[in-house]
Amino acid sequence: MTTLSELFPAGGGGNTADFVASGTLPNGKPVILKANGQVEVVGFSTTSQSIPAGSEYVFNTGSRARNPIMAFDPNTEGKFVIAFKDMGNSSYSVALAATVSGTTISFGSETVFYSGAMGLSAIEFDPNTAGKFLIAYQDEYNSGTGTSLGRAIVGTLSGTSVSFGTAVTFEAADVGDISMSFDPNTSGKFALAFKDIGNSDRGTMLIGTLSGTSVSFGSPVIFNTDSSTTHSVCYDPLNAGKFVVTYNRGTLRAKVGSVSGTTPSFGTEVVFSSENSNTFLNTAIDNITGKTLSVYYTDGYAKAIVGTISGTSISFATAVNWKNSLTYKMIIAADPLNTGSFIVNYSDGADSNKFKTIVCSVSGTTPSFGSPITIVNSNSYSNYISSKFDPVNSGKFVTTYDDVGNSEYGTSAVGQTTVSLTNLTATNFLGTATAAYTNGQTASIMLKGGISDNQTSLTAGSTYYVQTDGTFATSAGTPSVLAGEAVSATSLLLNGLATPDEIPSQTSQSGKFLTTNGSAASWGTVAPAGLVLLSTVTASSASTSDIETTFDSTYDSYVIVAVGVTVSASNCILGFQMKLGGSYSTNNYKFHTGTMQSSSSSYQSMRSNGGTMAQLSNELASSSQDVAGAVANYTINISNPSSTSFGKTAYWQGQALDRNTSGGAAAVSIGSCYNTATSALTGIRFLADSGTISGTFRLYGIAK
In which domain, by residue range, is 84 found? Predict the structure, then answer.
């Protein structure tokens, strides 16, 4: 039998053309054709940021502003709050409202929220409640007692003013290194990490609840039994009740936390940097992908590393060196509107400690950095830095600091990022470089239809796709760009084995049809019509019955038919839960079920704005009661389960025998539910609020 390598011997072959190289072209790497006729290697385009002229505004001209922190209200365009220690007002802790419009910032009046000095602190808005924010702060010396205890206070932003509730003490001993994050999937819930100085500097976590103008806390849980510093806590936007905490205990470490009520629990500790002198650790999370990005300084290098959360664990890719000199006071912020976009503010120890900012973009698990710019117009430095992206205006950010070059006045500056993560489109892939070329050189490019014989580690016979970072892989990326067929471990036939005139192998292709993309032929399948049975699950006296593994983007809509469902307990409620982000959600079900009974002329309803499951029925008669045929039958419709842009919805209708009332009552129920989590749905769990269930559950996909 003739092999691919025999059909296409080594040596590449013709089908090349010459182009002018735009930038460096590595040997064998995929290139794109630019609009000017030059070629460029596939990868990330340059990221950049700017601080427009006149975009720097002083909010406290009378004195120094120490420990400034800031946060945007995600529910009100252009509004943010600044808090700081006002050295010109008895070192009182104050806050003020601010508004950014274009590159202009205006400020409201200062409000004293504590007649004392705040030290290390954090501020965050509750994303689920407009205008509500929380300040957690170190009470410096507790009015002269010498104890820097931990306090928290709820603030309300209204127009151009702020007001406050009553401060609550969350730790009566010394605290330090405070970090805080709100759960985007649960209103008012947040995680607070701090160094408990009064307990041997142990890393400690509290789960708190904001309600109105009050705040309360659960019991503290130690997540690090040794001394730790530089804590960063970030809630996972894709997995309800999950968060990540990173910290420094000589080596850099991370844990994934889970929340039940107001009690946190933790997975296995992961060391992601064991190098010496790890300092200035700071972590942010991408609200779109759920990946973390940590920046830190060690052994003469500023580094960045990407983490990926899975269940109760986190894994890390290879760290990237982005600066090879002293870098400190690093503050990172994630752009909530652009996938993989971050800014890092820092003091440059190799350039007179100047305060600078740099953009980082992440694709997959690879961070790349643009060119830094000096953010303070005086080219001086800052002792305290806080930065946040505007959650409404794409790429806009505000940085707040004490400007040492201007009497340490409190200052805010508006910035704008320009981030394009890749130059690859669905149509601009040209071929591969036949050798290494530098900018401006005439480059010979192997075009589609030719053999690129300068590859490595390919699997002969496998199809490869161009990835956005300039590599080849056997699975399609976004956009999906076909590279070709591997002829050998080092040779790739660009854009497929077959030409439109060649027929690929017919082996194991029964029932399929021949199709072409214009350059290569392949076998396709006829899409089914109507309802397509995907799986059947039968439960017998089971606590739960799960349908999993079949939800994906193949179908926009799914139907579950529940047949002959019985329950073991009397007068129980039948319902279901959604598997979101890898685990079954036990909260955030907003539902309404209406029931009509043969034994009553009234309409009964059940509803919840945050239940533990979606309730299909009112109280059911059990199979053990004297009701013949005490079974329930339901049809449940689910749409767009694979989406990660919005919460998950379902609606249903069905029939059951209700209660044990003189032989039972026929009941018809209709209802719908909404779960606020935006994670992809990958399973449905049926259960009763007591006892066991039996019955058959069939999952159908509705063909597009």
Answer: 48-418
